From TrEMBL:
GO MF term set: transmembrane transporter activity
Protein name: Transporter
Membrane topology of this protein: Multi-pass membrane protein
Keywords assigned by UniProt, alphabetized: Cell membrane, Membrane, Transmembrane, Transmembrane helix
Gene source species: Pseudomonas endophytica
Length: 124
């Protein structure tokens, strides 16, 4: 992988993590609906939630970054590397959102990371 591809994939991963964090924070900030769940009221809240729109914005930017990366390297190399976003989301959930992450989930995250390293180094 060239340096520019590494930077593009890393930026894509960061944007993916930011998007997921924005979605989670945005949904957690929505007020409780009175009288039970009403789909129309929920969607009205969703469309008026700035953090959810920030998540959508992160995903739109990520889309174009990902296209740039795909134009420069094979999908079979990039897609496994993009799996590091899962690791980033687990880490960000723990550190920024205070979520509990079990030992088993940390082990799974480590396995993903090692798998990505294996794919990337095998391609070099």
């Amino acid at each position: 992988m060239t340096f520019i591809v590494v930077v593009l994939v890393a930026f894509s991963i960061v944007l993916d993590v930011i998007g997921q964090l924005c979605f989670k924070i945005g949904l957690d900030r929505l007020p409780e609906l009175e009288g039970g769940f009403r789909l129309n009221a929920f969607w009205l809240q969703v469309f008026n939630a700035p953090m959810l729109w920030a998540g959508v914005g992160a995903y739109v930017i990520e889309f174009f970054v990902w296209l740039q990366a795909l134009s420069r390297a094979p999908l079979s190399l990039l897609f496994p590397a993009a799996a590091l976003a899962y690791c980033g989301v687990v880490f960000a959930g723990k550190v920024l959102l205070g979520e509990y992450v079990s030992r088993r989930r940390w082990m799974g995250t480590l396995v993903i990371t090692l798998g990505v390293m294996l794919v990337c180094f095998a391609a070099a």
